[in-house]
Design brief:
- The protein has about 100 residues and is mainly α.
- It has a domain of about 60 residues: Orthogonal Bundle (Cytochrome Bc1 Complex, Chain D, domain 2), CATH 1.10.760.
- Helix 1 crosses helix 4 and helix 2 runs antiparallel to helix 4.
- The radius of gyration is 18 Å and the shape is elongated.
- The mean pLDDT is about 80.
- It binds heme C.
- The site of heme C has 19 residues, from helix 1, helix 2, helix 3 and helix 4.
Length: about 100
């Protein structure tokens, strides 16, 4: 019984470690991607102040040619959906 509990404890700890480090990774890459956006956008321009779901939606729409663009379509195509989500999460939470 005790060894079984110990095994579970290890699995739970490992899951927590993996989960928390992947959250941290999303945070860091979101921030790093955002620095590239600031060469054209300031934090206040172009609606980078949109709420997270709207920002994600806009970026995904650019990527898949669902939103009219001169350049954002090409920029969005450079990122995975997960990276677009990460940058939207970072930008959407800037105060
Ligand atoms: C080379 C300049 C440039 C860079 C870099 C850039 N953008 Fe844009 N962005 C634009 C332009 C120009 C538009 C207007 C749409 C178009 O013509 O492509 C736009 C539009 C947008 C919009 C739509 C705003 C709205 O009101 O609908 C969002 C959201 C956005 N950009 C987010 C980003 C994010 C996030 C990044 C970084 C990954 C980024 N942009 C990088 C130039 C840029």
């Amino acid at each position: 019984m005790k060894t079984l509990f110990n095994k579970f404890k290890k699995i739970i700890m490992l899951t927590l470690i993996i989960f928390s480090s992947s959250l941290a990774a999303a945070d860091v890459s979101g921030k790093m991607i955002a620095y590239g956006c600031f060469s054209c956008h300031t934090e206040k321009s172009f609606n980078l102040k949109l709420p997270v779901p709207k920002l994600t939606q806009a970026l995904i729409a650019f990527k898949y040619n669902k939103k009219q663009a001169t350049i954002m379509d090409r920029i969005a195509k450079g990122y995975t959906d997960a990276e677009l989500n990460a940058v939207a999460t970072y930008l959407g939470n800037l105060k």
